[in-house]
Design goal:
Elements (H helix, E strand, L loop, with lengths): L2 H27 L5 H9 L5 H21 L3 H13 L3 E2 L9 H18 L7 E6 L6 H22 L6 E7 L10 H7 L1 E6 L5
Length: about 200
């Protein structure tokens, strides 16, 4: 191999090496595409916050509403205590108007009861009307209802909404005393207030 051929071979080899080096440089220079990760990272935080906010705000709004509709066990116990302390209001024979002693009985704890119940409009009570044994069953049912209405009207004036009361008349069917004298009949002419069973 002469000198000219050696030079040609060296030149060809140099060109090949330069070509390979350039090709490698191009491959090495290829990795700088960072825009796609930045675009997806920018797109991800935008939709994420709104669902998180709405998810946290919804339960917070519904939980207090449920609590307000029905008193806690401690509050229910206090209501029952007040109802037990509000004595039965008694009536004169064949009358449905509240006597002074009946008004006093209803006044006893009705103000505190009103203050508790204003926060629980779904809490219901029953006012029972009762009569003594004299008179027909039909007559006494009507009279017992009038007595329950008189008690309800008074409690509504105190500030307890009428919608929280249900009226029922038992007439002469549920006496607390069964003797046949005025002392016993007086105890049977009454109204009685009880808490209704509450559905949650």
């Amino acid at each position: 191999m002469n000198q000219a051929q050696k030079r040609t071979l060296i030149a060809v080899a140099a060109v090949c090496l330069l070509g390979a080096a350039c090709a490698k440089k191009k491959v090495a220079a290829a990795p700088p595409p960072p825009p796609p990760p930045a675009a997806t990272a920018a797109a991800t935080p935008r939709p994420a916050p709104p669902p998180a906010n709405t998810a946290t705000s919804r339960p917070a709004a519904s939980t207090p509403a449920r609590t307000q509709n029905y008193p806690s066990a401690a509050t229910r116990a206090r209501i029952d205590e007040l109802l037990a302390r509000i004595e039965d209001a008694y009536f004169d024979y064949d009358k449905a108007s509240l006597r002074p002693d009946a008004l006093k009985a209803l006044q006893a704890d009705s103000t505190e009861l009103r203050d508790i119940l204003k926060d629980y409009p779904n809490y219901k009570m029953t006012i029972e009307g009762h009569c003594d044994e004299r008179g027909s069953a039909e007559y006494n049912l009507a009279l017992g209802n009038k007595r329950a209405e008189a008690a309800r009207d008074y409690l509504v004036q105190v500030g307890i909404p009428a919608a929280q009361f249900t009226l029922v008349s038992y007439g002469k069917e549920r006496p607390v005393c069964e003797d046949h004298d005025e002392g016993c009949w007086q105890r049977n002419r009454r109204i009685h207030i009880v808490a209704m069973a509450q559905a949650r």
